[in-house]
Amino acid sequence: MRIDAHHHLWDLNAVHYPWLMEPGAARFFGDPTAIQRDYLVDEFRRDAQAQGISASVHIQVGAADGLAEARWVQSVADANPGFPAAQVAYCDLTADDLPEQLGRLQALPTVRGVRQIVGRAPGEDARTGTNALLQDPRFLEGLREVGRRGLSFDLQLIPDLMPGAVRVLSDAPDTPVALCHAGSPHDRSADGLRDWATRIKTLSALPHVTCKLSGLGMFEHGWSAKSVAPIVEICLEQFGPDRCMWGSNFPVDSLYANYATTFQRHWSLVPDDMQNAVFGGTAARFYGLT
């Protein structure tokens, strides 16, 4: 079974996404104008199934109301039983009512984990203040609670934050963690990639951390298989195929290439004997998809 382990859907009439609909906004991932439209399951399934994808993991994507988004995703999954789905919902791990929030999310059968973004891009992080989560003891305790409930955590951050993340994650060893977008290597110079490789190695040393090969176009809009080959190679070397999984990051990454091209470029970079794990087995095990 091939699985897309990281994608989004949105119905702009059902859920409000402030970041997406901000007029004239220039974001680190590019001009969002082309994706300021509904991206629904029929379009996703058409493109994914053409590449042999038969299941997927929906990742929260900055809705104004995270629970409303999760409930909408559940309704989409209920209406499409022939396409097994899991979802990672938004949750504020520092909230005073965290147990109640998690309880409401766990009432949704598709919820396998939660995400609270720690870092997106250097410029944007300076404005959002999310980097401070790694110093907040409530965040660590929230991570532990997530694990106690049998949920996973999707971690999005940039390489600069990896030392702090290692300290925090080391104290929450029972919470499975999925590292989004290969740790967002935003500096694609030779020195930048060397620094990223050194930093991500400390995360790969934690056995409960799994790496996603996803979102590699966000910091290199003209990316090619050749340009991201060093990133894929390092991730496979450090995490191994049983702790690596592929995700399209659509529709965001549709700004740089269509779905077929995105899939085929990654497929070509993964050795034949690792493809079953990276494009299905790892995600099936991590997110409980059968």
Overview of this protein structure:
The protein has 290 residues and is α/β, with parallel strands linked by helices. The protein has a single domain, classed as TIM Barrel. The chain is 41% helix and 13% strand. It has an eight-stranded parallel beta sheet. Helix 3 links the parallel strand 2 and strand 3. Helix 7 runs parallel beside helix 8 and helix 8 runs parallel beside helix 9. It is globular. The mean pLDDT is 96.
How much beta, percentage-wise? 5-15%
User: How many distinct beta strands?
Assistant: 8
Helicity level, as a percent range?
Answer: 40-55%
Whole-number mean pLDDT = 96
Count of runs of 4 or more consecutive helical residues:
11
Q: Which blocks of ≥5 consecutive residues have pLDDT under 50?
A: none
Largest sheet: 8 strands, parallel
The CATH architecture term is Alpha-Beta Barrel
In the CATH hierarchy, what is the superfamily? Metal-dependent hydrolases
| Overall 3D form | globular
Give me the strand/helix succession: EHHEHEHEHHEHEHEHEHH
Strand order of the largest sheet: 1-2-3-4-5-6-7-8
- Top-tier CATH class: Alpha Beta
In the CATH hierarchy, the third-tier topology is known as TIM Barrel
| Integer-rounded radius of gyration | 17 Å
N-to-C terminal Cα separation, in Å?
A: 8 Å
Tell me the number of structural domains: 1
Structural class: alpha/beta
